[in-house]
Amino acid sequence: MFAVTLASALTVLAAEGVDPNLDAYAWDARPILVFAADGDPRLAEQLARFQAAAPDLADRENVVIVETEADSRLSRSFRPGDFTVILIGKDGGEKFRANRLVAVEELNTLIDAMPMRRNEMRTKERRTAE
């Protein structure tokens, strides 16, 4: 596995024969899983969208995990289509799935409606006001 930093706090992980352990992100991050075949142009486009919105994703504590192996443990667990984007909440549950390119604004709206995120925003506002 290797990590490529898109922006100061947004990381993209790509599995190369090693499946990431999603439990490691529980209660700390909201993983976004992207399943695609190597060379799929949708993967490059999706990652470009993430890169363009890296500060927003970092603020929401997202980690992007790219899986290109169709027979990996992660792929067997989530059973994605040929191109799939899945949002995992901090509680480890699947919150969103799409078999298409996804706008970051769509993910942000979903995340911002989550009770835990709303609590995070209130806490941040209180700290800023102090």
Side by side, the strands of the main sheet go 1-2-4-3-5-6
Helicity, as a percent range: 25-40%
Contiguous runs where pLDDT drops below 50 for at least 5 residues = 1-9
- What Rg is obtained from the alpha carbons, in whole angstroms? 15 Å
Structural class: alpha/beta
**Annotation field: number of helices:** 5
Give the terminus-to-terminus CA distance. 41 Å
Mean pLDDT: 86
β-sheet strand percentage = 15-25%
Labels describing this entry:
single chain, 130 residues, alpha/beta, 6-stranded mixed beta sheet, 5 helices, 6 strands
Structure description:
The protein is α/β, with parallel strands linked by helices. Helices cover 37% and strands 23% of the residues. The chain is built from five helices and six strands. It has helices at 41-52, 54-59, 73-78, 104-112, 115-129; strands at residues 2-5, 11-14, 30-35, 62-67, 84-88, 94-98. It has a six-stranded mixed sheet with strand order 1-2-4-3-5-6. The radius of gyration is 15 Å and the shape is globular. The model is unreliable at 1-9 (pLDDT under 50).
Summarize this structure briefly:
Helices cover 37% and strands 23% of the residues. It is α/β, with parallel strands linked by helices.
What's the helix and strand layout?
Blueprint lengths: L1 E4 L5 E4 L15 E6 L5 H12 L1 H6 L2 E6 L5 H6 L5 E5 L5 E5 L5 H9 L2 H15 L1
